[in-house]
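Summary for the funding panel

The consortium committed to producing paired sequence-structure records for every protein in the target list. Below we show the first two records in order, beginning with the earlier of the two.
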Amino acid sequence: MNPLEHIQQPQQTSYYQKDILLNLSFTFTTNNRIFFPNGKHKDLFNHNYKFDISIKSPVDTYGLAIDFYQIERDYNEKIAPLLNAPILNESLPVMNTTVENIAYFIWQQVELLLDEHSEIQTLTLYETIHHSVTLNKEMMQ
C-alpha cells in the first residue's frame, strides 16, 4: 500500500515565486597536455576534474525551477562526451587545455543548454581538491 495515496494536489502549488539558484556538480576524467612558456608542458593521465555550477532560474506556478534532470541529461549527451574524451586536446576547440580555458569552454557550452529565463551565476572547476578556478556572471559579460 502506498502511504501517500491520500495526498492530493493543493490548490496553490507554488509557495514562493521568485528566482532561485540551482546547484549542480559534475565530474569528468581525461588525458591532456598543458603547455607552459619556454616550450615546457605537463601531461595529465586519467586526470579527474570536478565542477560546480550555480544556475539562476525563475520558479514557476508549480514551485519548480529549471529541471535538474534535464540539465544533467543535456550535459551527459552534449558536453560530457567532449570532456571525457580519451585526449582532451583533441576533443575541445584548439586551445591550451588549462583549467582556466576549460572553465570558459564549459560555461559557454552550458549556456547553450539553458532556456532564455535561466542563466549561469558561477562555475568553479577543480583541477585538484586544492586548486580551482571560478567564473561568475559579471566576469562573463
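The next record, for a separate protein in the list, is shown here:
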Amino acid sequence: MAPVAELSSAIAHTTASGAAPKKPNWFSTGSLETHDDGSHILHWSDWSAGSSSSSSSAATSESRREVFLASLRRCMTSTGFFYLDGSPLESLREELFRVTAAVFASPESERSQILMVDSPHFRGYSPLYEEQTQGKADQRDQIDYGPQVEGRPKAEFAPHRLLGPNQFLPDHVLPGHQSVILQYTRRAQELSDQLTTALELALGAPQNALHQFMKSEQDDSYFRMKTIRYPNARGGGDQGVGAHKDGGWLTLLATMPAKGLQVQLASGDWVDVPHRTGAIIVNAGQQIERVTRGLLVAATHRVFADPTVGERLSAPFFSMPALSKVVRPLPLDSLSPQFRAAFEAAKAARGGDDVKSDVPRGDLWGGEEEPFGELAWRGITRSHSQVVDRWHRDVVPPTAS
C-alpha cells in the first residue's frame, strides 16, 4: 500500500478506463533536484528568518520570507513536491534512522511483539508484502505510528477508533524506540503547522483559513507516520510502491542515500527524487488539493525497488485534518493576486489545463460533506482486514473491507 497512512487504499486497482493496470515503466527523464534549475529546493532559513525580532534585520528577513513564499507558490502549483533544506527535523534524522534500522534488524520474534493486528488503533508492525497498490504487492515492511493519546476503541464515530496509544519495543529490547519516535513526531507536527501557515500566506488566504481544518472541538487531531524498509529487490519484482497521491494534508519524508522515489510531472513524464543531504522532501496531499479546488497539486509519485541499491529505509510523516472536520474548498476570490499569477505561470509552462497523471484527480477527496475521518477510516479498514476482523466487525460489515 502506498505510503499515505492507508488512505491510498482507496486507489482504484484499475486504470481510469477500467482496464487492468499495466506493468509500470520505471524510466525517468531527469531529477527533481535539478528540474527547472533547482527551483524545487526551498531553504528553511529563509522562512525562519521572518521571525527575527531585530529591527535592523527586519527588512532583510521579510525579503527572505517572500523568497520562500514565492518558491512555495511555484512548487505547489506545478509538481506539488519540493526539498526543504535545513528543516527542524534534520537534527533528529540520525537517531530516527538508528532506531528504525535497529527495529528492522531485530529478530522476527521481537517485531512480533508489536504486530499491528494486536492494536485496535492500527498501530504497529506490518510484515513484507502485506499491502498492495493497484493490485500488486508492495515490497516493503513497516511500522505505523500516530498520536500518542488515550484510546477510544469502541467509539460510536468509528474514525475515533484510530486514536490511541502506539506500540513500541521496550527499552530493554531497543533503547530509545519510544522516546525517539515521539520526539520526532512532535517536531514533525510543529513543522507541518508552520508550513500550513506559510501556505496561508502564499495563497493570500485569511488567517486560519487552512489551520481551521487541523483541530476540532472533539479533540481529534490526527496524523500517521511510518518507518519503512524496502528490502533488496532481487527476485521480488520492481514495485516498491505503485503510483499514488497521498490522501492527507502534507507529507514530510526523511530518506536515506538510495534511489527509488519518483514524481510525475504534468507532462506525464517521471523524474527521480533522489536523496538530498540535509533536506527532507515535502509534498502536498489530496486534502490540500481539495481545499484549493485543485489549484495546489497533490503530486503523483511512486517508489521502484531497484535491485542494484540493496535495502532502503524511509520515514514519511503524514499530517492530516482532524477526524471530525469537513474539508471545504476555499472561495476562489479569497486567494491573492500573487497566487493566481503563480497558478497561471504553472499552467502556461505545461501548455494549458491538461495535467497528466496515472492517478485520477480527486480519488481521495471524499464526499462534499463527509468528515475527513470517514475517508481515513474507509481506507485503513480496507488495507488491514485482520485488524478489522479482530477489533471492529461491530461497525465494519464483512463486505466493506
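Regarding this second record: The chain has one domain: 37-400. The two ends are 15 Å apart (CA to CA).
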